[in-house]
Every structure is written in structure tokens, then in C-alpha cells.
Amino acid sequence: MADRYLSFTGTAPGRLLTRRLGLPQPAALQRWTPERPSLEGDRLLLTAGKSDLGLTDAGAGANPSAGARTALGLDLTTAPSEKPAAVVLDATGVRDVETLAEVHAALHPVVRSVADSGRVVVLGAPLDPADHHQAAVQQALEGFTRSLGKEIGRGRTVNLVRLTDAHAAESTLRFLLSPRSAYVSGQVVEVGSAPADVTAPHDPDRPLTGRTALVTGAARGIGEAVAETLARDGAQVVVLDVPQAEQGARRVADRLGGTALALDITAPDAGTRIAAALPDGLDVLVHNAGITRDRRLVNMPAERWSSVLDVNLASVLRTTDALLESGTLRRGGRVVATASIAGLAGNAGQTNYGASKAGVVGLVRALAPRALAEHGVTVNAVAPGFVETKMTAAIPLFIREAGRRMNSLAQGGLPIDVAETTAWLADPGSSGVNGQVVRVCGQSLLGA
Ligand code: NAD
To answer: pLDDT tens-digit profile of 138-184?
Structure first.
């Protein structure tokens, strides 16, 4: 299961040989650890066009060499930096093709110097339907971001955040500028303004303190990593899995100081039973449980179709409805569902799975505005690409190897990458992030 090619290219002879043969050159990614919780180096703030975001405060404007404490609560600097860990380009003020040239002018001289595993984050504005020039160049930023993501290399990522309110984007910027987003690249995230009654967390290191999170399918794989990461961030976790996996669920729950819930999520009364198990309510609901039953459509019996649709989509719809309607999901709550690049790109042998995961995307987009307006709950999805788990270890060698390399980072993601993305969406500070489908795929070529 281990990616031996990645280990090999990490050695000097491996690097030499793979470069000579023109083979992919994956770089070992820097991920979050307690010892190295952030990227080391400056975070450089650049601007294209005339921005109204007000990112640097007045003092920093007078003295650009000082670290500028910004409206985002992040330390950014406008002083030149030899090897920045991150570059944030505020392009919200770009409204025409002439000022779009400032994007090139700002990044062209610095992009080479961004450190390995570093970050480029472009800030854009929502597209203005009344101004097709502004809409054209703001959309241009998307093509720019995705193209730079494909060429930047060395474990560096490039993402675009469309925003109107810098404060509402703080948790998003904190995530994208940290090692937690190691496998998220080429993404476009829209951040709206946060509802006034939802406050940012007091402790950014443990933002989920005092919150309860339920993760389905958490006895192993990605779900286990999600439960672990939410617990790291302070949540009280409920580890749900099928009765056959109860032992594994208990083991995970015990390790995390949480509780296990043995329940088949497809049971018609699953929502009621979860509500009964959580009389004090729930803050974070992660729909992670999922199955595959691959066959080409011509060979697929109805049972394979219905079992996948039932676990991956119908139960997600049913339990979300039940927990919203019963009020179990409290105001300020979060729903994070699990889609897949197979639901975006389609995949041979997976008409059932692709349909179910595309269904999750439809659910998220339609429910998000209403759930926020009526219940104060955000609804988002993560869409993993190739992630190193038991599910992908079962794929035949050559297909597996292709899946691993066909992305900008030339490697598979780890369960922790999906977990970190989930934790960002679950963060109380992420109330402006709603109805988003965030791919955790190293910018996979599939469905791009
Ligand atoms: P996995 O098979 O390792 O784990 C899935 C867990 O869900 C298991 O513990 C299983 O017992 C549980 N589960 C299955 N049916 C259930 C049910 N009816 N009720 C309760 N629990 C149930 O899978 P994984 O690789 O960790 O994937 C997790 C999620 O991520 C799934 O939704 C999957 O579709 C999605 N995903 C995975 C990848 C990948 O590369 N591994 C890629 C895209 C999407």
C-alpha cells in the first residue's frame, strides 16, 4: 500500500533517474504535526488592482517592513522576502483586462522563490452579473489559478478564494496557508459573509472545544482520521459504524475519549436513533460512510445499484433531514458530506457510485442556503481524489499507479488530508463557507 515510488524519488539516485527518464517528480509534502504546526517563513501580501478589502492596517501601510497584522488575523508582510512560505495576492480589485496584467506583474518575480510545500492563495471577488468586464477577469483568475497549480511543482499549492468580507474568510485563509491543506490545490472556494450571531472560536488551536461531532463510517480509513482530527481540535466525538465493525469503532472511540455508536446508517430510523443517542444535541455531522460495488452497467444487478445509492446518498438525505428537523443539529452546526472525484468526472465501472456521489453534490448545493437561513447550519462537501486507504489498495497495480500520479502533486493523498479539510469546514469560524464542494485531490486531472 505504501507509495514506494515517492520514497524512491526522495533519494538522490531516485531523483536523478526519474528526472533522466522524464518520470513524475513527486515531492514529500509537509503536513501538520504538533512539532511543525505551521509553514516556516514569511507570508507575503501582494495586491493587484485597487482593493477595498483593507487587509493591512494603517500602521503597516506607513511601515511596510513591519509584519502587517491584517484584518484576517494572520501575519502577512508587504516587505520583500527571499523565500516566502506563502504568497497571498489580493486581486479582488481587478475589474478589467488592463489591471489583470498586475496579477502577472505581482507574481512573475516571486513565484520561483516560494519555498517547497509553500502556498499561493489568490483572493478574488464574486463575479458581478451587472459588469461583464469584471466577471470576465474575475473568472480569468480561476483559469490562472488552475494553470499555475499545474506548473508550480515542489509540493506547492495554488488556490483561489472568492470573498467579500475578510473577517469571514479567516478560518479559510488559516487553513489554506498552513500544512493542513497539503493535498488541496487548484481549488476555488467562495466565502460569503458570516451570520452575525455566529462567532469565531476563541482558541484557533482547539476550535471545536465544547462541540460534539458525529462521524459515520469512522471505525477505519478516512472516517477514523476525521474523528481523530476533530478530537484533536477539541470535539467530543461519536464514532458511528455498522454493528459488524463495532469493535473497531469502540477502539477508535476509546482512544479519542469519545463514544461508539453501532448503527447501520441505512436503517430507516437511523436519524431517530442518532437523535436519541445525542439528547444534548450535535454540532458537526460528517457523512463519511461509503461503499463501492463496481461493475459496468451491463453487468450490474439491481442490488449493487441500490446498496451503493442507499449508503452513499439516500441515508445521507434521510439522516440530514431528520437531524435538522428534530433540532438535534444545533445553530452554528455543520454538515460535511463526502463526495468523490468519481462523482465529478465519472468512472468506468462506477455508474452507481458516480451517481451517488454526484447526488451528494446536488444535495449540498440545494440544501446549503436553506439550512443556513432556517437552522444556522452550513452544508458542504469534501470530494476526495485518490487517497491511500484499504479502498484504493484493492485497485489493480497499474490502475492504482495511474490514479496516484495523475494529479499536480503526482502522489496520492492520505486520510489525514481529507480529515484536515473536514476540520476546516467544521470550524465555528467557517460560517461563511457554505454550499462548497472542496476537492482533496492534489488537483487531479480527472474532472478538473
Ligand atoms: P473504507 O471502506 O475504508 O471505510 C468506510 C467505513 O464506512 C467502514 O468502516 C464501513 O464499515 C463504514 N460503513 C459502510 N457502510 C456503512 C453503513 N451502512 N453504516 C455505517 N457505516 C458504514 O472507505 P474510505 O476509503 O475510508 O472512504 C471513506 C469515504 O470517502 C467514503 O464515502 C468513500 O466513498 C469516500 N472516498 C474515498 C476515496 C479513496 O480514495 N479512499 C476517494 C473518494 C471518496
So the answer is: 999 999 999 999 999 999 999 999 999 888 999 999 999 999 999 99
Q: Is 421 in the pocket of ligand 1 (CB under 6 A)?
A: no
Q: What percentage of the chain exceeds 70 in pLDDT?
A: 94
Distance 35 CA to ligand 1 centre (A): 30
Secondary structure (DSSP) of 319-369: HHHHHHHTT-EEEEEEEEEE--HHHHH--TTBHHHHHHHHHHHHHHHHHHH
Residues marked active site are found at 353
Atom of ligand 1 nearest to the CA of 264: 19
Mutate to test the pocket of ligand 1, among 318, 341, 344, 391 (most ligand atoms within 8 A of CB): 391
Contact 76, 43 (CB under 8 A): yes
Please, are residues 310 and 242 in contact by the beta-carbon 8 Å criterion? no
Q: Is the CB of 251 under 6 A from ligand 1?
A: no
383 pocket-lining for ligand 1 (C-beta < 6 Å): no
pLDDT at 61: 45
289 close to ligand 1 (CB < 6 Angstrom): yes
Check if 416 has its Cβ closer than 6 Å to any atom of ligand 1: no
Question: What are the phi and psi torsion angles at 262 (to 5°)?
Answer: -85, 110
| 60 has pLDDT over 70 | no
Question: Is residue 58 scored above 80 in pLDDT?
Answer: no
What residues have CB less than 8 Å from 209, skipping those under 6 apart? 201, 203, 233, 234, 235
Q: How much distance in Å is there from the Cα of 84 to the middle of ligand 1?
A: 38
pLDDT at residue 241 tops 70: yes
The topology (CATH level 3) of 31-191 is Rossmann fold (3.40.50)
Pick the CATH number of 212-440 from 1.10.530.10, 3.40.250.10, 3.40.50.720, 3.40.50.150: 3.40.50.720
Separation CA 155–CA 117 (nearest Å): 4
